[in-house]
């Protein structure tokens, strides 16, 4: 993976997705609208040949690749899967600096993540603690709520009857939805919310946060690489 030169060389992103690609579109719009300077998307990969995100990429003349990824391809603890090896080759070929998981519905193995330390980020539709670990989160008003991980975090929030949920952008670690936080924002849960309506409001926040997260990453260098969340947000 190439190093980051914040003064001259654009930050080179790969976006991995499995579906609609609305967060990819948010990044594209921010880059094309000059709201996200010094950043370029150099590769879009999907495990789903019908993902609309691939069409979004092609409409903006971005390299878009379908990479088959079978359900049986379970991450191993000791070595990368065949699919991950192919993905690694693509990422290195395109000299990617950071990998954005934007609705990527596959778990990446520890050996894969070791190839790209602190270079893979994910969007999660719930609030995570600063270091990503733990089972509870303290909201801005001091309320302690459970931490919801996995595929159905919005549904879990509704089922728990909490008043606040949100969105988090975090570094990816081998433990699912448990990496250090880059940025996050709370979203109020309304009494009439359904899973769909709440998820739509969370997505609106996601679109803003992913741009903010990439902007923060582009302002950082090797010296600040391991700053905790509260220090990153001071920049």
CATH class of the largest domain: Alpha Beta
What number of domains? 2
Characterize the overall form: globular
Q: Separation of termini?
A: 25 Å
The proportion of strand residues reads 15-25%
Q: Mean of residue pLDDT?
A: 89
Largest sheet: 7 strands, mixed
Roughly what percent helix?
A: 25-40%
- What's the CATH H-level homologous superfamily of the largest domain? Formyl transferase, N-terminal domain
CATH A-level architecture of the largest domain = 3-Layer(aba) Sandwich
CATH topology of the largest domain: Rossmann fold
- Whole-angstrom Rg: 17 Å
Give the helix/strand class. Answer: alpha/beta
Total number of helices: 7
Q: How do the helices and strands follow one another from N- to C-terminus?
A: EHEHEHEHEEEHEEHH
The spatial strand order of the largest sheet comes to 3-2-1-4-5-8-9
How many beta strands in the DSSP annotation?
A: 9
Can you put this structure into words, describing what you see?
Strands 3-2-1-4-5-8-9 form a seven-stranded mixed sheet. It has two domains: 9-116, Formyl transferase, N-terminal domain (Rossmann fold, 3-Layer(aba) Sandwich); 123-220, 3-Layer(aba) Sandwich (Rossmann fold). With 235 residues, it is an alpha/beta fold. The chain has helices at residues 22-32, 52-59, 82-93, 110-115, 153-160, 195-219, 229-232, and strands at residues 11-17, 39-46, 64-66, 98-101, 120-124, 136-138, 144-146, 164-171, 181-188. The two termini are 25 Å apart.
């Amino acid at each position: 993976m190439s190093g980051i030169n914040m003064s001259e060389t654009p930050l080179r992103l790969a976006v991995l997705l499995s579906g609609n690609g609305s967060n990819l579109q948010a990044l594209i719009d921010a880059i094309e609208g000059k709201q996200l300077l010094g950043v370029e998307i150099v590769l879009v990969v999907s495990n789903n040949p019908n993902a609309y995100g691939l069409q979004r990429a092609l409409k903006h003349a971005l390299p878009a690749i379908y990479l088959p990824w079978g359900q049986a391809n379970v991450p191993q603890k000791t070595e990368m899967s065949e699919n991950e090896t192919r993905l690694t080759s693509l990422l290195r070929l395109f000299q990617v600096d950071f990998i954005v998981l934007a609705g990527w519905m596959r778990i990446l193995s520890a050996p894969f993540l070791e190839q790209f330390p602190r270079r893979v980020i994910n969007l999660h539709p719930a609030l995570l603690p600063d270091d990503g670990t733990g089972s509870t989160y303290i909201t801005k008003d001091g309320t302690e709520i459970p931490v919801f991980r996995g595929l159905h975090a919005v549904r879990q929030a509704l089922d728990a009857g909490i008043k606040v949920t949100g969105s988090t952008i975090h570094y990816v670690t081998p433990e699912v939805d448990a990496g250090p936080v880059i940025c996050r924002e709370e979203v109020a849960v309304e009494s009439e919310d359904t899973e769909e309506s709440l998820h739509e409001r969370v997505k609106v926040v996601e679109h803003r946060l992913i741009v903010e997260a990439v902007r923060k990453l582009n302002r950082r260098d090797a010296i600040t690489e391991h700053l905790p969340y509260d220090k990153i947000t001071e920049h």
